[in-house]
Specification:
The protein is mainly β. It is 12% helix and 34% strand. Strand 3 and strand 4 form a beta hairpin. The longest helix has 12 residues.
Amino acid sequence: MVGGTPIKESEVKNYPYEEWTRPFQYNVTAGTAYSRFLEGLKNGKIYGTYCNRCGHVFVPPKMYCPYCFRPVDGWIEVKDEGVVVTAVISYISATREPLKEPRVVGVIKLSVPGKEFGEHRFPGIMHYLCVDPEDVKSMKVFGMRVRARWKPADKRTGSILDIECFEPVR
């Protein structure tokens, strides 16, 4: 036998337990990097950080390069346009509930001003894509140029959802 003595179902009810009814409240700060990123989204801009040593651009931003293990070299505003690297059709929500209509989620490699695609390492940002799920099934979405569809300025709150989705560039 491995791992101790098994407990029978009838014995479980005999163990005392305590039920917590008081709701817990947490105060969490976004930190330096995410605060600037979220403030940028509220203003219709996408900010990232970069590492000169390995050439990576990070969106959302990081304060330390996870590849070089050193502080990043600075901030950069990336374009709200890029290329779809990969995509899936999701039939469940982020909170694990079934969706009435499927959503397309993708990874977008955003453009960095002054650099062509491939000249920088950008793992990509995951977000909703405003495309027909059939475009994912038929592989039309892969390599597609897309642009952020922003909420109206007066409706933005400093959330990643200030970008409603990324839609094809026509």
